[in-house]
């Protein structure tokens, strides 16, 4: 026997409110011609099968849109995915005499679950053996079979994820080459050599109390690592990634057009299908009008801004932690911790940032759902789009607020010796290393990406696996002899199948959404600040090889069957990806112009270096850059309440990273030259990169010519077929 859906309920006493509500709902289904079968165990299971006329109406209204999925032996049969989708719609839109729908009854615990069944059909067995296994890691994805079993929306997700992973391979290769090019500069960089040889350059203390003066050469290794990341190759890689993001999206549009054309869904209208199912469910249904409330939209906008403010406040809290932790670590009795106070503060701050992301993801989801309910969207698709935009906005600020601070504000708003900016008038803000702040951004991104792609993926697999094993252990079939208020049923062959499906992990309408959101956030990490972390595409590529099969195993083996949904694209996610592409151009331009030392070094080479004015063929043009980038501070100008940090250096002066005069500490002309160069580079880089993106988008058509020709000849054939019915009138 084939059943479209199974409803699960607790066993309620005869005459109880829940039992009455359950019977009313089942009676409404019976009036619509549904066949209902009951099986009793520790729970009550109701198999639901829709009458055939429901599907005939669907085919008549929409002109048999599933003809390619229909069985060759039974051309009138409707695909299982379409049956499930129609029955799911009717179940969730059937209203009882008490004006309650299935969702209302589930909230009141009248029903516990409602799900379609995993059938032992050939398609599922193929997916189980060939796709949802770790040994098939490098096998091609069976997109057509995924579509036949899970529907078009899931199939498009895996098609997009596979295409994204394939093109990530090229970005990963470019990132590795950039990183290798940096490694070759590990010991050969002139700037690094100057720092390593600066054993007479005394730097100002890094904290107020108990922090000694220090010699610049003590940070030799840190300087080498910085210039391994921050070099000319990084600029080329940032431009490449801006172009890659555009090419990826344009090629995906072509791929998507080819796929949906083969499915006969290129011109599919989601609104028309929803209206058809509304009429099938209730012939008296009136469509809900489009409405817009400026008052409601204003309230939602204000609440969104309030939530963004809270998320930025959390990022500020992380900054405060780093400041306080750095001050405490610098005063530690442990020599190693004291010497590496900056690095330890950055690393612990990154771990704390990851924990914040995990916690705030759950809170962001609840807030986004609440705001969607305030908007009262007309359809489920509109609700899903509104929810997507809000949750992505919240997640973006959750994931990137701290990174934005490190990239663009760290070491630039902290003041100078003798006039530091302080938190609560006590703890002074962090400073950048003399070789730049880009290593801090590198460490932060590396830790967050590694934690997200290891701990999160392990938990994503282990939690459903353990949950399934526990449910299977505690909810195995048990025979009951007495059932309150219900007739006892004999053992049924469907019982084991229904129970085994019930023991799987629950899915909901946002199950696939969660997978998309995870990949979109990863795409953001891979593109927006990739100039500071060239290995991000490689980590994403390796992660996705496992992610594809992890998602497959969850869907086929560990989770109940998803309700198949029809789609001809990835929806609003495409707009999100395009927005991320623009943010990537802006973000990487800012990283190179502000975070990196690329611009100050170029200004020095062409305006102040030994190479200016004379042809010094044997001198590196960056010689003297470090001394040029450090200002002089007189120790007597420290704040009066600052404790004496130890023995004063010879000459009663120390150095700090900035471009200021030694007498009045105002900015030097070099500062304004560098400021102008940063601004000019940012404007030129972003305009050039955006122009390249626009040219690439124009050069690569969204729809392949063969798809256009296929649609053209299909329209021509349909018109010719219609014309045959027109009989010419004889004169």
Automatic annotation (TrEMBL):
Keyword Transmembrane helix (UniProt): yes
InterPro entries xrefs: Anoct_dimer (IPR032394), Anoctamin (IPR007632), Anoctamin_TM (IPR049452)
Keyword Signal belongs to the record: no
Transmembrane segments: 154-183, 233-252, 298-324, 344-361, 391-410, 520-546, 567-594, 675-700
Species: Tyrannus savana (Fork-tailed flycatcher)
Protein name: Anoctamin
A cellular-component GO term for this protein: plasma membrane
Keywords: Cell membrane, Glycoprotein, Membrane, Transmembrane, Transmembrane helix
Lineage top rank: taxon: Eukaryota
Family from the record: Belongs to the anoctamin family.
């Amino acid at each position: 026997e084939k059943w479209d859906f199974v409803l699960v309920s607790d066993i309620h006493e005869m005459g109880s409110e829940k039992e009455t509500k359950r019977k009313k709902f089942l009676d409404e289904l019976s009036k619509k011609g549904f066949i209902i079968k009951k099986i009793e165990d520790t729970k009550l299971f109701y198999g639901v099968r829709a009458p055939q006329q429901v599907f005939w109406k669907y085919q008549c209204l929409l002109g048999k849109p599933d003809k390619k999925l229909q069985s060759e032996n039974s051309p009138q049969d409707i695909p299982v995915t379409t049956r499930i989708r129609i029955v799911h719609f009717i179940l969730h839109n059937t209203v009882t005499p008490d004006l309650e729908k299935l969702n209302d009854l589930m909230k009141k615990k009248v029903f516990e679950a409602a799900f379609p069944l995993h059938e032992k059909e050939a398609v599922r067995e193929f997916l189980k053996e060939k796709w949802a296994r770790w040994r098939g890691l490098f096998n091609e994805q069976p997109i057509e079979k995924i579509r036949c079993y899970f529907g078009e929306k899931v199939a498009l997700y895996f098609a997009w994820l596979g295409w994204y992973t394939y093109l990530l391979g090229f970005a990963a290769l470019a990132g590795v080459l950039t990183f290798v090019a940096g490694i070759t500069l590990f010991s050969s960089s002139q700037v690094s050599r100057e720092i390593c040889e600066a054993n007479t350059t005394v730097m100002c203390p890094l904290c107020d109390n108990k922090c000694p003066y220090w010699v610049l050469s003590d940070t030799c290794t840190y300087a080498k690592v910085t210039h391994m990341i921050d070099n000319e190759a990084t600029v080329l890689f940032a431009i490449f990634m801006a172009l890659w993001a555009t090419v990826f999206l344009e090629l995906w549009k072509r791929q998507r057009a080819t796929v949906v054309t083969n499915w006969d869904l290129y011109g599919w209208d989601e609104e028309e299908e929803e209206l058809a199912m509304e009429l099938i469910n209730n012939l008296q249904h009136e469509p809900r009008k489009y409405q817009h409330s400026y008052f409601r939209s204003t309230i939602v906008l204000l609440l969104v801004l309030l939530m963004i403010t809270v998320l930025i406040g959390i990022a500020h809290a992380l900054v405060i932690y780093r400041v306080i932790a750095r001050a405490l670590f610098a005063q530690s009795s442990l020599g190693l911790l004291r010497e590496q106070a900056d690095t330890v503060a950055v690393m612990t701050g990154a771990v704390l940032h990851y924990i914040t992301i995990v916690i705030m993801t759950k809170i962001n989801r609840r807030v986004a759902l609440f705001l969607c309910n305030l908007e009262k969207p007309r359809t489920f698709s509109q609700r899903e789009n509104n929810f997507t935009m809000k949750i992505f906005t919240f997640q973006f600020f959750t994931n990137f607020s701290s990174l934005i601070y490190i990239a663009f504000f760290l070491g630039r708003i902290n003041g100078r010796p003798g006039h530091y900016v302080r938190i609560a008038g006590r703890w002074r803000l962090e400073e950048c290393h003399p070789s730049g702040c880009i290593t801090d951004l590198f460490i932060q991104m590396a830790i967050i990406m590694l934690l997200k792609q290891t701990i999160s993926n392990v938990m994503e697999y282990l939690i459903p696996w353990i949950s399934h094993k526990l449910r299977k252990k505690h909810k195995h079939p048990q025979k009951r002899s007495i059932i309150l208020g219900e007739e006892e049923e004999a053992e049924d062959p469907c019982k084991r199948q229904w129970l085994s499906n019930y023991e799987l992990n629950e899915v909901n309408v946002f199950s696939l959404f969660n997978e998309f959101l995870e990949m979109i956030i990863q795409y953001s990490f891979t593109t927006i600040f990739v100039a500071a972390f060239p290995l991000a595409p490689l980590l994403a590529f390796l992660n996705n090889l496992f992610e594809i099969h992890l998602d497959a195993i969850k869907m086929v083996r560990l989770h109940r069957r998803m309700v198949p949904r029809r789609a001809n694209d990835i929806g609003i996610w495409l707009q999100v990806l395009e927005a991320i592409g623009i943010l990537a151009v802006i973000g990487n331009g800012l990283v190179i112009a502000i975070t990196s030392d690329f611009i100050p070094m170029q200004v020095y080479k062409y305006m102040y270096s030994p190479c200016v004015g004379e042809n010094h063929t044997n001198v590196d043009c960056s010689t003297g850059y470090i001394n040029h980038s450090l200002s002089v501070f007189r120790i007597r100008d420290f704040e009066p309440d600052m404790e004496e940090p130890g023995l004063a250096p010879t000459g009663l002066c120390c150095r700090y990273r900035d471009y200021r005069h030694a007498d009045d500490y105002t900015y030097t002309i070099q500062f304004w030259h560098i400021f102008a160069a940063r601004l000019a580079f940012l404007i030129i880089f972003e305009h050039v990169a955006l122009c390249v993106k626009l040219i690439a988008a124009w050069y690569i058509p969204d729809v392949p010519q063969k798809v256009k020709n296929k649609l053209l000849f299909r329209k021509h054939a349909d018109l010719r077929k219609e014309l045959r019915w027109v009989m010419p009138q004889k004169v």
